[in-house]
Amino acid sequence: MTVLRTLLASLAILVAGIAVLAFSTDGFRAYTTETARRIDVRTHPRPVPPLVLQAADGTRTSFAALRGRWLLVDFIYTRCTTYCSVQGGEFANLQRWLAGPIAAGKVTLVSVSFDPRDEPAQLAGYQRRFGDSGTGWVAVRAVASADRAVLMRVFGVTAVADGLGGFVHNAAINVVNPDGKLVAILDWDDPRAAARYITRRLTP
Amino acid sequence: MTLQMLVQIPLLGVAGWLLAQGTPARLRRVLAAWNHRGVSGLVLASLTGLVWMLPRAMDAAVDVPLVTLAKFLSVPLLLGAAIALSWPRMGFVVRGVFLVELIATCFRMGWLYLVSPVRLCSNYLLDDQQRLGKYLVGIGGAVVLILAWKLMWGRIDTGRTERKDPPIGPR
Fold first, then answer.
1. For the segment A67-102, what is each residue's pLDDT rounded down to a tens digit?
2. Interface pTM, i.e. ipTM
3. Is the pLDDT confidence value at A121 over 80?
4. In a domain, A37, yes or no
């Protein structure tokens, strides 16, 4: 009798355990937070809040003002000296590759700083350093620190202090559609894929 | 990451194990009726451990308060206490399977963390992940050595004599 009961109990535990595992991995698809946020964004596009942002030239803008075009958004901090500094060069490349759609007002590149130390001067220096060609790429920062936290939460960005005055963060190229919704998160080290993603959606 | 996986979670497990020492005799009897040779408890503990080994679960335990609460409740009760109540009831083979699987898991996870070039947890740095990998491989190796020593020179309950569950209730 005890054996039978044990068998039943074990089976029930097994079923419950597999259910918990399936639930906590999105049906065995996402074992890391990073994969999970990509799947979640793809299946449930998130509206980006219309927060006030300050650009490198000191002017104010907002995600609401940027509606109506595709946005490629990355999160940066200008002091980065390690691999995240590649992001700047990539956005300069994207600026060249997507020059057509940018000129047509269909695409804008947005680099958002999450470092409270970044002021417009640093943002301008960042864009200059990586060869900004002038149009279609804005480097911005959230003016209020509460807004910065909101942005990071919506985009799912986690930045960990690296102990050397910098950060380690889950860099990515985020795609926001013309309706102002975050619809995809693409690999930070494959800007060509991001360019293709946009071109495909712009060609009818 | 190393702290969470090798200090916090084990300590929570130990807390559950200590808690289980005070299980009332009645409850112990009821549980024993469903836990022949500790198999149900082993399944429960293994699955609980499996869930908290997922990088995503470790991340969520840092980011989401509800998940933190779930961890602080489930690791002591479903892992520590379950092992405490089941280990004395397990036979030689069940214990062996459990320990071999423990060693294999240490090596598997350790190796994964050592060689993975990407951070598996958004909340922890890569050097932390690699340190954890090194420690896990070390722990797996230590368990192998202890087991080998026990097999060579220790006293081993092979289960050849008729196995009786330990007496239930107050002695």
1. 999 999 999 999 888 777 889 999 999 999 999 999
2. 0.81
3. yes
4. no
How is chain B split into domains, by residue range?
2-153
Q: Would you state the pLDDT for residue B157?
A: 64
Q: How far is CA A95 from the centre of its chain?
A: 17
Residues A27 and A50 in one domain: no
Q: Between chains, do A32 and B56 touch, taking CB under 8 Å as contact?
A: yes
Residue of B nearest to A32 (CA): B56
**β-bridge partners, A184:** A175
The two three-digit tokens of residue A111, written as one number:
């680099």
Residues of B with CB under 8 A from a CB of A: 32-37, 39-40, 43-44, 47-48, 50-51, 54-57, 59-60, 63, 119-126
The runs of H, that is alpha helices, within chain A are 2-24, 33-43, 86-97, 99-103, 120-129, 145-155, 191-202
Q: How many CB atoms lie within 10 A of CB B25?
A: 10
Structurally, chain A folds into a number of domains equal to: 2
What is d(CA A113, CA A43) in angstroms, rounded to the nearest whole number? 26
Helix %, strand %, coil % for chain A, to 5?
45, 25, 35
The residue of A1, A5, A6, A15 whose CB has the most chain B CBs within 10 angstroms, and thus the best one to mutate to test that interface, is A6
Confidence at residue B169, expressed as pLDDT on a 0 to 100 scale: 56
Looking at residue B61, its amino acid is A
Q: For residue A33, give the nearest of B40, B56, B126 by CB distance.
A: B56
Cβ neighbours for A15, distance < 8 A, ≥ 6 positions apart: none
Q: Which domain holds residue A146?
A: 46-202
Q: Using an 8 Å Cβ cutoff, are B119 and A158 in contact?
A: no
